[in-house]
Amino acid sequence: METNRATFLAAAAGTAIAARSASAAQAAGSYDRAKMEAILGRPARHRHIIGYPRLQNSAAMRSAAHIMGAYQFAFGEGPGTVNIVVALYGPGTVMMLANDEFWATTKAYDLTAALGELPPTTIRGPRNPFYHAHTSLSPHDDPEDPAGYWHDYSVEALTKRGVSWFVCNEAMHTAARELERLGDGTAASNLAKLKAHLLPGTLIVPSGSQSLVVAQERHFTYQAA
To answer: Is 165 helix (H, G, I), strand (E, B) or coil?
Structure first.
């Protein structure tokens, strides 16, 4: 009897360890930490991460453009000396990184409007109003021209200039639930659709707040937008 009991306990313990290991492996495989580390590890003289929970008239985008411009032109360092990451961790800011198809087939516009974060000049349409460049994306534009490439605060323009985007998984869940509340599908279907329609260059991270900690541990300067 004692032998059987010992065998049972050993087997149970082994099963529990295996389950925990499988769970840990599954959790570790849910996010591309290697890619996150590669983005944060890009060689640059300056490192900057911007936390972005609310749209606030594209505040994070403006900051990113101004920081890069100041180093490139005012300090004469040229392009590529700043590694800038924008961490989006609010349901409204998450919508900025969804592609045109998502905006055309969901209530992304209604969600950002309901949150009170949509700029009043934004026109409802089938495209993501935050993605597309407002300029020709020409690096030959005058840096002093406020209508030129170097003052283009779109996701497309900033991505071309080297900005990276971290999108918070928790915020995506919140956005998916809010879309359901607006009568747009289910939270589960919205989440799956959002993940499938993120813009190129976007990396899903477990938590936007946690990504700020990880970046600061790697000597990034943090700015709240």
So the answer is: strand
Residue 195 in contact with residue 172, Cβ under 8 Å? yes
Give the pLDDT of residue 4.
54
Query: What is the residue extent of each domain of the chain?
Result: 1-30, 33-224
**The tokens of 50 are what?**
């911007």
Cα–Cα distance measured from residue 172 to residue 192, given in angstroms and rounded to the nearest whole number: 10
Q: pLDDT class for 30, splitting at 50, 70, 90? A: confident
Bridge partners of 50, per DSSP, are: 86, 223
Cα–Cα distance, 90 to 52 (Å, whole number): 7
Q: Which residue, among 95, 118, 122, has the nearest Cα to 184 in the 3D structure? A: 95
On the CB side of 28, CA atoms within 13 Å amount to 7
DSSP-derived pairing of the beta strands 164-168 and 82-88: parallel
Segments of 64-106 assigned E as strands: 82-88
Question: What is the percent of the chain with per-residue pLDDT over 90, rounded to a whole number?
Answer: 85
Alpha carbon distance 62, 58 (integer Å) = 6
Q: Does domain 33-224 have CATH number 2.10.10.90?
A: no
> Which one-letter DSSP state was computed for residue 93?
H
**What are the two backbone dihedrals, phi and then psi, of residue 181, each rounded to the nearest 5 degrees?**
-60, -30
Q: 31 is written with which tokens?
A: 């996010």
Pairwise CA distance, residues 79 & 82, whole Å? 8
Q: Are 62 and 22 in contact (CB under 8 A)?
A: no
